[in-house]
Amino acid sequence: MQEFTGDELSSRKAEFLKYIHMQGNVVKTTEIAAHFSVAPSTATKALGEIAKAGYIEHTPYHGVKMTTLGTDYARFLIRRHRIVALVLSRYGLEPDEACREAKKIEQCISRDLTNRMCMSLGHPMMSGCGEIEHDHCCCCPAGDRQG
Amino acid sequence: MQEFTGDELSSRKAEFLKYIHMQGNVVKTTEIAAHFSVAPSTATKALGEIAKAGYIEHTPYHGVKMTTLGTDYARFLIRRHRIVALVLSRYGLEPDEACREAKKIEQCISRDLTNRMCMSLGHPMMSGCGEIEHDHCCCCPAGDRQG
DNA sequence: CTAAATTTTAGACTCTTACCAAATCCGAAA
DNA sequence: TTTCGGATTTGGTAAGAGTCTAAAATTTAG
To answer: Residue A56: helix, strand or coil by DSSP?
Structure first.
């Protein structure tokens, strides 16, 4: 597993990457632009930069596809999001609120802090946003996991 | 109490404001520049913008002083910082780590979320960074406060 | 095979943070 | 009181991130 810090991509690009990952397969520029309500050229530029960093493969005029590195990173980003949302839900936020607030906060949470919160929560399997993966979680011997 | 959202100043300017508040009285440009390790001109520019927004009074060549608005805002910023640090400390971070991480996160935490965390924690009086003020806290009837 | 739709390129703008160099101001020493 | 020197401000420049419009390029559908 790569040693991501959580800082590799700007928060905007990280959102793009998560979206591409969650779509699976090839995603078109227009689809991303529409989803994030930005001009297609804005998406193209961001995609080019994400590709240059190695997280996606961009075939001009044909769309983008996750690389192995990108997939690993996206899984970390999603895990982080869900852990942050879960933390927030412990302070009385409803699942959708927790998810919304988590989106604003997560980019400031390092991988290390993510892991520590995960550990402190007993390696939870679920958050309001979905399942939390622990496959590559350095801090999670299987025996520790919560049912 | 003003209806701050927590978004009024960029995080850098908010750090400047907190510093000025904590110094009390008039603070000189050089002192701020030195504290944050930036060129004096960088401080001057930021100070001018913070002043334009009404949080400080800037007398050119003589330094800056908090306004009432700025004081209220700084107190909110400090309260937010301490609440965030307290939350982090509940996930196993030592006080100094919690404080360091809180600095990175707090600017993404809205006033509303701050208040909800505060409430959920039972309106705590202390965090590892110092006392938590509740004077102007909309969510804190005196009876709710934790000893 | 051409026209419409999609995508990319190019150029420009905003915002935040930052720096340097030059001009300006203030105060203290003489 | 005059002047020198340190403190401060001004003005210009830069980089990174995100955004847009308009025009060019490519793909695709009729």
So the answer is: strand
Which position has the token pair 């509740």? B134
Cα separation, A47 vs A105, in Å, equals 23
Residue B69's CB: how many other CB atoms inside 10 A?
15
Distance A25 CA to D23 C1' (A): 31
* Nucleotide nearest residue B47, measured CA to C1': D9
Q: Find residue B63's DSSP bridge partners.
A: B59
Domains in chain A, please, with CATH? 11-66 (1.10.10.10), 72-131 (1.10.10.10)
| Residue B117 to residue A91, Cβ atoms within 8 A | yes
pLDDT, tens digit, 9 for 90 and up, residues A37-66? 999 999 999 999 999 999 999 999 999 999
Cα–Cα dist A118/A83, whole Å? 7
